[in-house]
User: Fold this.
Amino acid sequence: MKNPLKRYVIAVTGDFGEPRNHRSLERWIVGNGGIFSATVTKDVTHLICTWDDWKEKVLKVRQALRLDSIKIVNYDWLEDSLLGKRPRREKPYLLQTVEKEKRREDKLEKRAKREAAQRFKDSCLSAEEETLSRQYHIYRDVTMFEYSVILSRVDMRTNRNERHHLKLYESNALPHLYTVGTRFTRMGGSGKDMLCPLSSFFDQAFARFRAFFKQKTGLDWEDRLSKKKRTALETDSSLFRYLPPVLGRPRGVMRLGTEADDDDDE
Assistant:
């Protein structure tokens, strides 16, 4: 088609790089039957715009947006129209369209990164769990209490039961090394995590165990048997509940080598 840009009044904004400077674009537009406009007016049909100028909403872009008749397109529209010797349909080249597609691609990329990170985390956890099953056991203190505790709550928004199964592990081999793991479960989903490295010392692992317990229940580990303190937190629906073993069963020590004070309990 001769003069593929006839009937079009075209303005440009932004730096397209050499040799696509504004003077060159003006020659190409005029040479193919179009009218070049240095400003944005109601007569302009197209504004050829860089991505940077579109994002920054420079003056010409703002003016074009106020005039619904102007199509704001990228440089590819002009190039493809000239190479094809006929004006291209604008929709794929509209900056609004490009922006929506970019947001969609960014969203997909972020999702792919999250899924890849989760797959990597799951593979690491699987390897750690295999090591745990072969080389570790649940830690027991001097009272023979097993450090495998259930923390539970009811999510009032969804009326679903949720729970964390928190475990402190001890290596089979000597000298003993320790780690802490937790598994979260609820209807429709679950998750698991290791809270410290497999080769941790007891103080480090027990500190992570106690910190997680405090974070989820609001209670210090040493206060877990205090009925008074547990009752005081029952009105906070965001916290998880710990139900101690019944009297007569091992209930653990407050600190290593110190008996728990359960005078407040039933």
In short: The chain has a mean pLDDT of 88.
